[in-house]
Sequence to fold (65 residues):
Amino acid sequence: MCFSEEDQELWDADPVDYVQKKQDVMEEYSSVQSSVSSLLVAMSTARFKTVFPIVLQFIQTKLTQ
Fold:
């Protein structure tokens, strides 16, 4: 779920293509990033009071780094 050098190169070359690639419905089925995102959303939704604060703290920590 990290922004890689390949992502940066694609963004610099063609931002529209980058967005289309990241939002490709067919690629979501085989994408690890999409699977992890879905898992986090499902966990945060199902157990909001226990999981959501932990996920939010993790995201905040990574953004401040």
